[in-house]
């Protein structure tokens, strides 16, 4: 989860998120260099003694500041498109979970091996145990196996919502009447938090998502297979 | 980002962020690139000044040198970092396979020994 006043990305829990962090570092370095150049140009503008009012054109400069931005955009676009296509790769998911957004909770359906369906509500502050996270913890977590490709089918029963888990690099809109799909593979066990990411009414900030990723052996002993 | 410190643990010092957003300490290759860029900037700018005695133009050369050297070091370092990550991933998976399949017909070492004896 994010800690207070965190600005940067959370640590990656999936290979796609690792790629996104790498891309973010790459883009940020380019942005830094452009900002540095602009600051220098501003400094020159403020300190110049040049007062020639007869300058009519500057062909070379105009050529440079047309071609250079095009090159920069290509340098940013190529890795971006690479990751975009990587997220669409079909990787034969082991498990399919349906996630349905409501005002203001999520319903999860594990229907591959049985009929496990449950709702996931945020824990109200009065019901928090010591150590629980305010506005993040839920009554029923989504329990999933580690290192297994998982397909999430996301939709909504009423208004737009968005199912997001930053540490996995996931954010998929839940649209009524439409099924959106996202796949991921978690690389390490743990509890990971996300929040609804599309404005959906009064309690939009109070319908979090909690994934509990556990080893496959322990997952197989759980209610998904035994119910 | 690292987890927040537990009570009793020493506070983490704030990482250095250039221009307020580039975290030089926690971004792989950033510190290395900026340092080499700064060195390149000083060498290029000062060298140009020594030859021409033009201050403003030398500053321009210095800034240009900083940008080019930083970018060059950045791409070189990131390329090597990506290669290293791929090798680490392959090594991790081979270790996992070795532990999982040791003693069975799928043991990678048995396959390798078999092919080398042939």
From TrEMBL, chain A:
Cofactor note text: Binds a copper A center.
General function of this protein: Component of the cytochrome c oxidase, the last enzyme in the mitochondrial electron transport chain which drives oxidative phosphorylation. The respiratory chain contains 3 multisubunit complexes succinate dehydrogenase (complex II, CII), ubiquinol-cytochrome c oxidoreductase (cytochrome b-c1 complex, complex III, CIII) and cytochrome c oxidase (complex IV, CIV), that cooperate to transfer electrons derived from NADH and succinate to molecular oxygen, creating an electrochemical gradient over the inner membrane that drives transmembrane transport and the ATP synthase.
GO aspect biological process, one term: electron transport chain
Keyword Electron transport among UniProt keywords: yes
Keyword terms, alphabetized: Copper, Electron transport, Magnesium, Membrane, Metal-binding, Mitochondrion, Mitochondrion inner membrane, Respiratory chain, Translocase, Transmembrane, Transmembrane helix, Transport
Protein family according to the UniProt entry: Belongs to the cytochrome c oxidase subunit 2 family.
Principal place of residence: mitochondrion
Protein name (database record): Cytochrome c oxidase subunit 2
CDD domains: CcO_II_C
Organism: Homo sapiens
All residue ranges annotated as the Cytochrome oxidase subunit II transmembrane region profile domain in the record: 1-91
InterPro entries (alphabetical): CcO_II, CcO_II-like_C, CcO_II_C, Copper_CuA, Cupredoxin, Cyt_c_oxidase_su2, Cyt_c_oxidase_su2_TM_dom, Cyt_c_oxidase_su2_TM_sf
Membrane topology: Multi-pass membrane protein
A Pfam family of this chain: COX2
NCBIfam families assigned: CoxB (TIGR02866)
Cofactor names: Cu cation
Location in or out of the cell: Mitochondrion inner membrane
